[in-house]
Amino acid sequence: MNNNLLPLGTRDEFGSRAVNKQHIISVIEHSFSDRGFAKISTPLLEKKTVFEPYKLGNYQLYSLLDQEGDTIMLRPDMTLPIARFLSSTNISLPQKFWYVGDIFRISRQLSGSYNELTQAGIELVGYSSIKAEFECLILINQLSQKLLTDPIEIELGIADLTTVILKDLTDDTELQEEIAQALYDKQIPKYERLIDRFSNQPEYQFLLKWPRMFGKPERIFAQLAEDDLSPEIEQRISELKQVVNWIQTTLPDQAVSIDLSSRAPQQYYTGLTFKGFSKAGSGYLFSGGRYDKLLANFQDMTESAVGMGINIDLLTDLIERKPTVQKKLLYFKPDQWQAAEKVLQQNPNSILSLSDNLDDARKEAQQLRAELVDLTEGEFIG
Question: Among 57, 97, 285, 364, which residue carries the largest CB count within 10 Å?
Fold first, then answer.
């Protein structure tokens, strides 16, 4: 009988993990609200057409049929439902939204990834100013300081850089995709074979260095200065320099790096991208960027937009790994309840034992990995 087993890629959460996760969500919610963001909630189920035009990564989607025969999906993304919401309402722009919710993506088997993920994030819609990106970067810095002991590094990129460069090289879209995939996957021998046909073009020296263009901004900008780049690319590099200078001036203690050879977080990104990661754990904790053409799928007019997602589960993993202060388990008799409550209030890291006898209390303490304090022996002073 397997009726008690969870669906593949899901999990129950309880105890310290559930508490830590809720704490993270609470801190994030208050931070967003304090900065004037409005909460938005969208349904778990969305019509397939909301996500159909976009490739949302290397995973499958949960889909089913509704009573009218339409294909509906468990949402794999939080940004596209918000774009759908904006296209179907008369809400005036600009607007700043925040959200927290679960998304569902079917990962490859044996990948070790969960199919149900909790995500928080913000969407700044109707803002063409680079100040929208700066607001996201400020929040990454502030939230990481509130939630983590290890520093966060912000990694910057340019979403459409690959598209612009490869379109200048060739009109062959299949070749463009093949080169891009080899670049993103760091398949250097394959990548070098593919670009060899462009060895007589002025961009070739840049192409050779491209897969290794990640690291400290000073080194990347020095390498770019050696190459003859098109005005379109130079403009994007100039904007990237502006962001780096702003971070180094406004957030002088914030670690920052650049990666010009990675894929954008989502296909619909169009401008600056940013990711935040901790060397204490794997994966990106924060991820976002500009996507000024997102609403084009839902309405005739597009809107400027910048967004950022936060991986709540990865943040919880990091906090769970931190050493915790040992709890004290207070054993007492029923007629000592008032005294036990007083000790409990004076010692925040303590909990009451509800066991009937001292032997059971010892077992309870062992299970909880707590220090047993026997209040029946006399008054406890913490």
Answer: 285
